[in-house]
Amino acid sequence: MNSITFLDKLSTTILAQPENELANYTIVLPNKRAKVFLLESLKNQLQGTTFAPSIISIEDFIQEMANLRAIDSIELLFEFYEVYLSVTEKSKQQTFDEFATWAKTALQDFNEIDRYLLEPNKVFSYLEAIEALKRWQVEASKTTTLIDNHLEFWAKLPLYYESFYNHLLNKGIGYQGLIYREAVKNLEKFALSSTNTIYFAGFNALNQAEEKIIKYLANEKKAKIFWDIDELFLNDSYHDAGLFIRKYKKEWKPFIHQDFEWIVNHFTEEKNIEIIGTPKSIGQAKIVGTIIEKIQSKSPNLENTAVVLGDENLLLPVLFGLPASVEALNITMGYPSKNNPAQLLISKLFKLHTNAKQRNEKSYTFYYKEVLAILNHPLIEPYCKVEELVNVINSNNFTFFSREKLFDLYTEKYPKSKSILFELLFARWDDVSGILANLNAILLHLKSQLSNDNSEEKVAKTFLYSIYKTIIKLTNYHEKYNQIDSISALHAIYKQIIELAEVSFEGEPLSGLQVMGVLESRVLDFENVIITSVNEGKFPAGKSQNSFIPYDVKKELGLPTYKEKDAIYCYHFYHLLLRAKNIWLLYNTDNEGIDAGEKSRFITQLEIEKQQKHNLTATIYNAVLPEKAYEPVTIPKTDLVLERLQEIAVDRGFSPSSLTNYIRNPFQFYMQRILRINEAEDVEENIAANTLGTIIHNALEELYTPYLNQFLALHHIEAMEAKIDEVILKHFKEIYKEGEITKGKNLLAFEVAKRNVYNFLQVEKKAIIEDNDAIKVLLLEESLSCEIQLESFDFPIKIAGKVDRIEERNGVIRIIDYKTGRVYAGSLKLNDIFALTPEIENEKIIQLLCYAMMFENHELRKNLDITAGIISFKNMKKGFLPVVIGTGKEAVHVISNEMIEDFKVIIKLLILEIFNPEIPFKEKV
User: Fold this and answer.
1) Which of 196, 243, 718, 819 has the highest CB neighbour count under 10 A?
2) Are 772 and 751 in contact (CB under 8 A)?
3) Preceding peptide of 540 cis, ω within 30°
């Protein structure tokens, strides 16, 4: 890039010293990332080889001063719990789970108090007084245990703080604030013993401890400080980007024996700034890829290009959206472990085993969805290979089953194979040590299945390694502190570690495109900068109150509030723009949903305070929407399709339901009959309507079969009534297999099935007793067929199907179709047989007339009149609902031979349409 970067300027200053003295300099930077870039800048300006100065991050520098080691937040929590137990009466001690809910917030406040060198007892007594004041009107005799415990907690905070502080000091460890406070105490001693000249470079917002350290060392002529601020921000008293450095320039003058360096003038230089709004985060990821392509078309080298992610969750979408031409890439940020596929697997295992123990400790009862979620997980499915077991669970409606049953099913399906992974996944979780060992073994087994040759498997290994480190950490915490005594406690700690953990990606730090988070961009400069998620709540992060200290108290004590945090983001934002030539600011225009938010104030500020040389454009990118939301699928009738249709016509035949299926949706007919694709079989957790219908059909068939071809008597009906429960239960077991029917919706469905059959028998009983009907059941669930000959075809068309029931009642044949849904008599009325068009509203009539046509020449007809109709179980009071053809007095129930012949003409026309190669199968939407 044309502008000299801040690190180049710093390198020039460092190299102005004699080469043999460079090793006597210590350069302190805001983060570790900048060290690599500074070393590269020094190397580029050096002619020969020399010893480099010591380059260190501010946190490492402070740790050296204090001679203490920083520990992570989870270890701090365990250490704090040990202290808490030691100073709290046994009767009042909380479990680790309860303790952790407030301890994290307390530790955060301890950290802030120490970083800003406040007097802890003064802060805690202030907070205690505020809490007491809230309840000043409550008389001492009327206080509750809850109020007493609450006030006691505030009174004990100073004791917790002091005991914890001393405990950590004795161990030589600490949290950041404690280390800062101790570093300040060691300041004079450090200054006397230090021989190196210290350069503090690129800082913005300093806490009180950092201020004191830097001011003291500068005053003792042991250190110099180099700022990086544009004069526009520094001289504008309202601009948040210069909020902190303005303060230091004004207040530090008596302590600093150097000019205020460096004030630059880069922001007003010529810049191309493109503000792009697009709905949803994924749209931003796509646009980043397009911008990279545009940059590469001008210059293939991307070393001066940075993608800064305002939302770290966008990392994977952005990586997937990058063009294939991006060869070198460096990711300077971690991907959140909570979105890691390996982490999602562990979370599913926690859910499975926790719930299994809660349901039944002894039998260890699994829920099918939780089992399938693990077996179908992308890290498990390729290596466990249990498709047949999954099919058995789905087809047999296993909803809840014991661990033993799961292993029995596995052995039954795979008698000669043993899967270590399967056994590890579903081994009992009894003690914490065993659980951690089990998780460790699962991760190592999965790692052994992955190769280093495949790039996708290498990424999977990276994800696995990240979680493996987390499990090792958990194991170490458990062995060291022995406070994790249950699955729930282990899961709670695991979730806390995962919140902090990140997946680190390898890359070349100095070559190719740089992808980073906001904090990683400090002190770095790029010519092309793409910033995503420039929305309120993301950039800046917005308000978040995770503290016991109220806002007004923070204000009074000089602790940072959201105002200062917003100013920090403001500095980072404008620093990214400072030396850049081409800038793209992407934001989400959607104001609804999880990742929504209005356009960032920083964009508005850029627009309002537009600089003369800034070429600023604003664009809204919307997805290209088609004129139609959905285009129905059209399938042409090829020779192969026509061959398949002929095969159906000659062999199995067209069933009445398949013809009505064609009328309803030709595309569905094509899928089911031509391609033979049916819906995937899933576990039916709640009995579906069609399953309930099948059960009722089968039950009625079994009940009536003993009385076929004989006139029904009252005692026949009573015998059937006595068997209802037994027969319904039998068919539930046959159709619904292992499904749970003893509780919930399924128990209701079971009772509904019994009630439907009982009501049906009551209607039959009434017909025999009150109406003196002579009922003879001729056929049940009988397969019927007939052939139709079309002149244009050299093969017959077979119509075949299964009719629910055919009976002779009072000398008339009744063809009956059972419907478990509600059917109204009006839907079975037709003015004229030729008015029967192949439309969806006529599907029931077409189906019934098909049955009549197939029965026309059956031996059991015996020249009797035929009626056809429906018995609707949800409209049982109406009884038999016949097909009625005609109007007024001419309306008839009987289906004559002439009507059947006329109906054949209609069916022939429908068949011709199905076979017509000019009429494609078109989806009805």
Assistant:
1) 243
2) no
3) yes
Give per-residue pLDDT as tens, 743-775.
777 788 888 889 999 999 999 999 999 989 999
The more confidently predicted of residues 505 and 734 is 734
pLDDT tens digits, one per residue of 278-314: 988 888 999 999 999 999 998 888 889 999 999 888 8
How does strand 271-278 pair with strand 614-620? parallel
Looking at every residue in the chain, the average pLDDT score rounds to 88
CB contact at 8 A, 670 and 635: yes
Per residue in 450-462, is it b (16+ CB within 10 Å) or e — as a string? Answer: beeeeeeeebbbb
The string of pLDDT tens digits covering residues 158-197 is 999 999 999 999 999 999 999 999 999 999 999 999 889 9
Whole-angstrom distance between the N-terminal and C-terminal Cα of the chain? Answer: 57
- Backbone phi and psi for residue 308, each to the nearest 5 degrees, phi listed first: -105, 120
CB atoms within 10 A of CB 623: 9
Rounded to the nearest 10°, the torsion over CA 13, 14, 17, 21 is 170
What are 882's strand-pairing partners? 869
> Residues 340-355, buried b or exposed e (16+ Cβ, 10 A)?
bebbbbbbbbbbbbbe
Q: Residue with structure tokens 């069916």?
A: 907
Distance CA 465, CA 474 (A): 14
880 touches 826 (CB < 8 A): no
Tokens at residue 675, please? Answer: 């391609």
For the residues of 381-441, what is the DSSP string, one character each? HHHH--HHHHHHHHHTT--EEEHHHHHHHHHHH-TT---HHHHHHTS---SHHHHHHHHHH
Looking up tokens 């289906």 gives 895
Q: How many helical (H) and strand (E) elements, i.e. helices and strands, does the chain have?
A: 35, 28
Burial of 580 (0-12, 13-18, 19+ CB in 10 A): buried
Cβ pair 866, 813 in contact under 8 A: yes
User: Hey, what are 143's tokens?
Assistant: 């206080």
Structure tokens at 626: 């088609």
Collapsing DSSP states into helix, strand and coil, what is residue 161?
Answer: helix
For helices 487-500 and 96-115, angle between their N-to-C axes, nearest 10 degrees? 30
- CA-CA distance, 173 to 618, in Å (whole number)? 51
Could you tell me if 349 and 387 are in contact, meaning their C-beta atoms sit under 8 angstroms apart?
A: no
682, 699, 779: which is closest to 734 by C-alpha?
699
Q: Are 881 and 870 a contacting pair, CB within 8 Å?
A: yes
Euclidean distance between CA atoms 561 and 598, whole angstroms: 22
**Structure tokens, 498:** 């995962």
Cα torsion 858, 861, 864, 870: sign:
negative
pLDDT, residue 232, reads 94
DSSP state string for 191-242:
HHH--SEEEEES-----HHHHHHHHHHHHTTSEEEE--EEHHHHH-TT-GGG
Which residue type, as a one-letter code, is found at position 810? Answer: N
